[in-house]
Write a structure and sequence with these properties.
Family: Belongs to the glutaminase PdxT/SNO family.
Function: Catalyzes the hydrolysis of glutamine to glutamate and ammonia as part of the biosynthesis of pyridoxal 5'-phosphate. The resulting ammonia molecule is channeled to the active site of PdxS.
Bound molecules: glutamine
Catalytic activity: L-glutamine + H2O = L-glutamate + NH4(+); aldehydo-D-ribose 5-phosphate + D-glyceraldehyde 3-phosphate + L-glutamine = pyridoxal 5'-phosphate + L-glutamate + phosphate + 3 H2O + H(+)
Number of strands: 12
Shape: globular
Largest sheet: 7 strands, mixed
CATH class: Alpha Beta
InterPro entries: Class_I_gatase-like, PdxT/SNO, PdxT/SNO_CS
Keywords: Glutamine amidotransferase, Hydrolase, Lyase, Pyridoxal phosphate
CATH topology: Rossmann fold
Number of helices: 5
Length: 196
Protein backbone atom coordinates (compact mmCIF):
# COMPACT_ATOMS: atom_id res chain seq x y z
CA UNK A 1 0.00 0.00 0.00
CA UNK A 2 1.21 3.50 -0.71
CA UNK A 3 1.60 6.00 2.10
CA UNK A 4 0.96 9.68 1.52
CA UNK A 5 1.98 12.25 4.11
CA UNK A 6 0.54 15.69 4.78
CA UNK A 7 2.89 18.33 6.13
CA UNK A 8 1.17 19.01 9.45
CA UNK A 9 2.73 22.23 10.71
CA UNK A 10 -0.24 24.50 9.93
CA UNK A 11 -3.29 24.66 7.69
CA UNK A 12 -5.90 22.32 6.22
CA UNK A 13 -4.32 19.01 7.28
CA UNK A 14 -7.23 16.92 8.50
CA UNK A 15 -9.26 17.33 5.32
CA UNK A 16 -6.35 16.04 3.25
CA UNK A 17 -5.91 13.06 5.57
CA UNK A 18 -9.58 12.14 5.06
CA UNK A 19 -9.37 12.43 1.28
CA UNK A 20 -6.14 10.36 1.12
CA UNK A 21 -7.78 7.62 3.18
CA UNK A 22 -10.76 7.65 0.85
CA UNK A 23 -8.45 6.75 -2.07
CA UNK A 24 -7.35 3.63 -0.18
CA UNK A 25 -3.82 4.89 0.50
CA UNK A 26 -2.46 5.21 4.04
CA UNK A 27 -2.31 8.80 5.35
CA UNK A 28 0.19 10.19 7.83
CA UNK A 29 0.47 13.62 9.46
CA UNK A 30 4.08 14.66 9.03
CA UNK A 31 5.35 16.58 12.06
CA UNK A 32 9.03 15.61 12.07
CA UNK A 33 11.36 15.51 9.09
CA UNK A 34 12.44 11.94 9.95
CA UNK A 35 8.95 10.80 8.96
CA UNK A 36 9.61 11.73 5.31
CA UNK A 37 11.51 8.47 4.84
CA UNK A 38 8.30 6.55 5.62
CA UNK A 39 6.14 8.07 2.87
CA UNK A 40 5.86 7.74 -0.90
CA UNK A 41 4.27 11.13 -1.63
CA UNK A 42 3.82 14.42 0.25
CA UNK A 43 1.04 17.01 0.31
CA UNK A 44 1.77 20.62 1.25
CA UNK A 45 -1.62 21.92 2.44
CA UNK A 46 -3.27 25.31 2.26
CA UNK A 47 -2.82 27.78 5.11
CA UNK A 48 -0.51 30.75 5.21
CA UNK A 49 2.65 30.32 3.19
CA UNK A 50 4.84 32.69 5.24
CA UNK A 51 3.79 31.04 8.51
CA UNK A 52 4.30 27.61 7.04
CA UNK A 53 7.75 28.61 5.80
CA UNK A 54 8.72 29.82 9.26
CA UNK A 55 7.68 26.46 10.71
CA UNK A 56 9.43 24.55 7.89
CA UNK A 57 12.64 26.31 8.92
CA UNK A 58 12.19 25.90 12.65
CA UNK A 59 11.50 22.18 12.35
CA UNK A 60 14.39 21.63 9.92
CA UNK A 61 12.16 20.59 7.03
CA UNK A 62 13.60 22.81 4.30
CA UNK A 63 16.45 20.62 3.02
CA UNK A 64 14.55 17.44 3.84
CA UNK A 65 11.58 18.35 1.60
CA UNK A 66 13.84 19.45 -1.25
CA UNK A 67 15.73 16.17 -0.96
CA UNK A 68 12.44 14.25 -0.92
CA UNK A 69 11.46 15.90 -4.20
CA UNK A 70 14.88 15.44 -5.80
CA UNK A 71 14.60 11.71 -5.13
CA UNK A 72 11.69 11.74 -7.59
CA UNK A 73 9.01 11.42 -4.94
CA UNK A 74 5.75 13.20 -5.78
CA UNK A 75 4.74 16.41 -4.02
CA UNK A 76 1.29 18.05 -4.29
CA UNK A 77 0.84 21.64 -3.10
CA UNK A 78 -2.60 23.16 -2.60
CA UNK A 79 -3.03 26.93 -2.30
CA UNK A 80 -0.33 28.03 0.18
CA UNK A 81 1.36 24.74 -0.78
CA UNK A 82 1.48 25.92 -4.39
CA UNK A 83 3.21 29.12 -3.23
CA UNK A 84 5.74 27.05 -1.28
CA UNK A 85 6.55 25.03 -4.43
CA UNK A 86 7.15 27.99 -6.76
CA UNK A 87 10.63 29.25 -7.57
CA UNK A 88 9.46 32.87 -7.83
CA UNK A 89 6.80 34.95 -6.07
CA UNK A 90 5.55 38.27 -7.40
CA UNK A 91 6.50 41.34 -5.31
CA UNK A 92 8.34 39.23 -2.81
CA UNK A 93 12.03 38.59 -2.52
CA UNK A 94 11.79 35.48 -0.42
CA UNK A 95 10.99 32.30 -2.28
CA UNK A 96 10.45 28.97 -0.59
CA UNK A 97 11.09 25.40 -1.75
CA UNK A 98 11.46 26.24 -5.46
CA UNK A 99 10.41 22.77 -6.60
CA UNK A 100 8.49 24.03 -9.64
CA UNK A 101 9.64 26.39 -12.36
CA UNK A 102 6.90 28.99 -12.05
CA UNK A 103 6.21 32.49 -10.77
CA UNK A 104 3.08 32.91 -8.65
CA UNK A 105 1.03 35.85 -7.42
CA UNK A 106 -0.34 35.64 -3.86
CA UNK A 107 -3.89 36.64 -2.88
CA UNK A 108 -4.19 37.22 -6.56
CA UNK A 109 -7.92 37.39 -7.12
CA UNK A 110 -8.31 40.52 -4.99
CA UNK A 111 -10.06 41.38 -1.76
CA UNK A 112 -13.64 41.54 -2.94
CA UNK A 113 -13.43 38.01 -4.19
CA UNK A 114 -11.25 36.61 -1.43
CA UNK A 115 -13.17 33.36 -1.46
CA UNK A 116 -15.25 31.89 -4.25
CA UNK A 117 -16.15 28.69 -5.99
CA UNK A 118 -15.86 27.96 -9.68
CA UNK A 119 -16.69 25.14 -11.99
CA UNK A 120 -13.46 23.98 -13.61
CA UNK A 121 -12.23 21.32 -15.97
CA UNK A 122 -8.83 19.88 -15.11
CA UNK A 123 -6.88 18.37 -18.04
CA UNK A 124 -6.00 14.71 -17.59
CA UNK A 125 -8.13 14.55 -14.45
CA UNK A 126 -11.76 15.32 -15.25
CA UNK A 127 -14.45 17.89 -15.91
CA UNK A 128 -16.76 19.97 -13.73
CA UNK A 129 -14.79 20.27 -10.51
CA UNK A 130 -16.30 22.47 -7.84
CA UNK A 131 -13.09 24.37 -7.13
CA UNK A 132 -12.96 26.23 -3.79
CA UNK A 133 -10.63 29.24 -3.79
CA UNK A 134 -9.67 30.93 -0.51
CA UNK A 135 -7.39 33.99 -0.79
CA UNK A 136 -5.92 32.00 -3.61
CA UNK A 137 -2.78 32.54 -5.62
CA UNK A 138 -2.44 31.94 -9.34
CA UNK A 139 0.45 31.09 -11.60
CA UNK A 140 1.72 34.08 -13.57
CA UNK A 141 4.51 32.52 -15.59
CA UNK A 142 5.97 29.08 -15.98
CA UNK A 143 8.81 27.25 -17.66
CA UNK A 144 8.30 24.97 -20.65
CA UNK A 145 8.36 21.84 -18.45
CA UNK A 146 5.30 23.01 -16.55
CA UNK A 147 1.97 21.89 -17.94
CA UNK A 148 -1.11 23.94 -17.08
CA UNK A 149 -3.96 21.63 -16.09
CA UNK A 150 -6.65 24.20 -15.33
CA UNK A 151 -7.36 27.88 -15.79
CA UNK A 152 -9.90 30.26 -14.29
CA UNK A 153 -10.52 33.54 -16.10
CA UNK A 154 -7.40 32.89 -18.15
CA UNK A 155 -5.24 32.43 -15.06
CA UNK A 156 -3.42 29.16 -14.55
CA UNK A 157 -4.70 27.58 -11.32
CA UNK A 158 -3.50 23.97 -11.57
CA UNK A 159 -0.26 22.65 -13.02
CA UNK A 160 2.05 19.67 -13.19
CA UNK A 161 5.79 19.44 -13.71
CA UNK A 162 6.85 15.80 -13.77
CA UNK A 163 6.25 14.42 -10.28
CA UNK A 164 5.11 17.78 -8.91
CA UNK A 165 1.45 18.83 -8.88
CA UNK A 166 -0.20 22.01 -7.61
CA UNK A 167 -3.61 23.64 -7.42
CA UNK A 168 -4.52 27.17 -6.34
CA UNK A 169 -7.82 25.81 -5.01
CA UNK A 170 -8.64 23.33 -2.25
CA UNK A 171 -9.72 19.92 -3.57
CA UNK A 172 -9.70 18.54 -0.02
CA UNK A 173 -12.64 20.78 0.94
CA UNK A 174 -15.06 18.91 -1.31
CA UNK A 175 -15.83 15.22 -1.37
CA UNK A 176 -14.79 15.00 -5.02
CA UNK A 177 -11.63 12.92 -4.72
CA UNK A 178 -10.56 12.88 -8.37
CA UNK A 179 -7.53 15.13 -7.87
CA UNK A 180 -6.22 13.23 -4.89
CA UNK A 181 -6.79 10.01 -6.82
CA UNK A 182 -4.76 11.48 -9.67
CA UNK A 183 -1.99 12.30 -7.19
CA UNK A 184 -2.20 8.81 -5.71
CA UNK A 185 -1.63 7.43 -9.24
CA UNK A 186 1.42 9.69 -9.64
CA UNK A 187 2.68 8.22 -6.35
CA UNK A 188 2.06 4.66 -7.54
CA UNK A 189 3.86 5.32 -10.85
CA UNK A 190 6.86 6.93 -9.19
CA UNK A 191 7.11 4.06 -6.73
CA UNK A 192 7.31 1.58 -9.59
CA UNK A 193 9.86 3.69 -11.45
CA UNK A 194 12.00 4.28 -8.36
CA UNK A 195 12.01 0.57 -7.54
CA UNK A 196 14.08 -0.15 -10.67
N1 LIG B 1 -5.94 29.24 1.36
C1 LIG B 1 -4.65 29.48 1.29
O1 LIG B 1 -3.82 28.58 1.40
C2 LIG B 1 -4.26 30.92 1.17
C3 LIG B 1 -2.82 31.17 0.85
C4 LIG B 1 -2.38 32.49 1.43
N2 LIG B 1 -3.06 33.58 0.82
C5 LIG B 1 -0.87 32.65 1.32
O2 LIG B 1 -0.40 33.55 0.72
O3 LIG B 1 -0.14 31.86 1.87
Amino acid sequence: MNTIGVLALQGAVREHIRSIEETGAAAVEIKRKEQLTQIDGLILPGGESTTMRRLIDSYGFFDAIQKFGKQGKPVFGTCAGLILMANAIENQEQTHLGLMDMKVARNAFGRQVASFEANLDVNDVGVAFNAVFIRAPYILEMGSDVEVLAAYKNRAVAARQGHYLCTAFHPELTDDNRLIEYFAQMVEQSKQTLAF
